[in-house]
Every structure is written in structure tokens, then in C-alpha cells.
Specification:
The protein is α/β, with parallel strands linked by helices and 119 residues long. The protein contains 3 helices and 4 strands, in the order ββαβαβα.
């Protein structure tokens, strides 16, 4: 067991409408509810990756959507040489969900191939 095993995870709940308290355990995790894509991107730039991001796709008119935020996470990981944080998608938008799953899956496969080529 490491010293961090007892610390709460940092979780970003990205959704413009749904309250995370209705869907996830906010007692044991440090949950930050971010309601729009621009705020998400600012937070990522300023504080880096959380332990887990729980994505919605449709974040309100005029806001970058969940897919744009997912792309930003992948760009951040590429720029900083990081693995993706844990991620979940709770969006009811099937096309948006598939797009986000695809970009994360593609990055994870690319990173795995890169690591295999170095060993």
C-alpha cells in the first residue's frame, strides 16, 4: 500500500445539467463539477489531469462539446508524455459517445504500440 491509497481521487464531472451527486459518490472522491467546455479546458491547462474525467457530450449552446474536451485531453497527454486519466462517458448522445470513445481508444492503442516498440 502506498501513501496515496487513502487519498480521495480527483474527479471532474463534465456536464452542463446533471448534478454529479445524483450519479456518483461525491463523499469519497474530490469531485469538481465543470459545466462547460471552455472552463474544462482552462482547468486542464492550469491544473493538469485529474484521476478521472466523467464526460457528457452536449454541454450547451456556444460551449465546446465533450468531444472537443476529449481531444484537448489527448493533446495534453501527447504534449506532456502522459497516459490518459481514467475516463467514463455518461452522455446520452450515441454519436458523441462513440466519437469520444474512438479518440481515447486510438490514443491508448497508439501509446501501447509506442511502448512496445521501445521494449
Amino acid at each position: 500500500m502506498t501513501m496515496n491509497d487513502n487519498l480521495p481521487r480527483t474527479v471532474i464531472w463534465l456536464d452542463d445539467l446533471r448534478d454529479p451527486k445524483d450519479y456518483i459518490d461525491c463523499e469519497s472522491d474530490n469531485v469538481l463539477w465543470i459545466k462547460d467546455g471552455e472552463e474544462f479546458m482552462r482547468h486542464l491547462t492550469e491544473y493538469g489531469l485529474p484521476d478521472l474525467i466523467d464526460f457528457d457530450h452536449d454541454l450547451g449552446e456556444g460551449s465546446p462539446d465533450g468531444y472537443e474536451c476529449a481531444k484537448k485531453v489527448v493533446e495534453y497527454c501527447l504534449e506532456h508524455g502522459k497516459k490518459l486519466p481514467q475516463w467514463r462517458i455518461h452522455s446520452a448522445n450515441p454519436v458523441g459517445r462513440n466519437n469520444m470513445e474512438s479518440i481515447f481508444s486510438s490514443y491508448e492503442k497508439w501509446l501501447e504500440a509506442l511502448m512496445d516498440s521501445k521494449s
